[in-house]
Amino acid sequence: MRFFKHLFSLLFYLAVLLGGMWGYENVPTFQTKVNIVAAATQNTIANIKSTITGESSQSQQTSTATSSDSNTSSGRWTKNSATIYINIKNQTLNEAMQEAIANWNATGAFTFTIVSNKKAANIIATTMSKDNQAAGLTDMSINTTTGYFMSGHVYLNSAYLLNAEYGYSKQRIVNTAEHELGHAIGLSHSNAISVMQPAGSNYTIQQRDINAVNKLYSTSSSSSSK
After folding, report:
1. Mean pLDDT of all residues in 68-96
2. Fewer CB near the terminus (10 Å): N or C of the chain?
3. Is it the case that residue 106 has pLDDT exceeding 90?
């Protein structure tokens, strides 16, 4: 009898695991919730590690109509390049992210390399579906000792970008992806005509944005130079 109880428990947990894996791959809303919980867990672990070692903390940037403007960067990569894994099932948002990556790469100021192995990525690009007044979200983990990014997540909010009520054209969706990638590079908001304008979707990459990236990566990290 005990054997059958253990067998039943094993089969139950196996079914839950397989169901969860299927849901993550096939149900966008479930995938979004898992990604958000995973990001929150990563944040908690990073904060605990920061408390113990003083080596890392988190920097978060969002693109919203009410975000405050900042003229300084909160972090950067050791060099002007990063690997990125795209985990976006929706074709419109996937194509927008790939176009945004291509547009940043075309500037020559920063290079994103798309990888097929999630573990090899510095940045994970995915989606969320949340009514939080943000068309996108960028969550970066930064080493406070050196000022360099360690990893990051870029989210496109399908609840806004794919809702006809908000009127996002294909170009505005691409602009939003460029904006979030700008945060992942290390750029902060700007009230000028810029892809980094707080609204996040009004402009594509401008020359001032390219200049800002070149300036950011022409010197050592501000934290490491102290």
Report:
1. 83
2. N
3. yes
Q: What pLDDT does residue 179 have?
A: 96
Q: For the chain, what is the radius of gyration of the CA atoms?
A: 19
Residue 35 lies in a domain: no
SS3 of residue 161 by DSSP: helix
pLDDT at 98 exceeding the cut of 70: yes
Amino acid 33 reads K
User: Structurally, how many domains does the chain consist of?
Assistant: 1
Q: Is the pLDDT of residue 203 over 80?
A: yes
Rounded distance, CA 29 to CA 126, Å?
12
Residue 27 is assigned to a structural domain of this protein = no
Mean pLDDT taken over the chain = 79
Residue (of 153, 144, 157, 145) closest to 184 by Cα position: 153
Which residues neighbour 190 within 8 Å (Cβ) at sequence distance 6 or greater? 69, 71, 196, 197, 208, 212
Residue 209 resides in a domain: yes
**Domain ranges, residue 178:** 55-216
User: What is the number of residues in the chain?
Assistant: 226
DSSP string, 88-129: --SHHHHHHHHHHHHHHHHHSS-EEEE-S-GGG-SEEEEEE-
- Of the candidates 223, 174, 224, the one whose C-alpha atom is nearest the C-alpha of residue 202 is 174
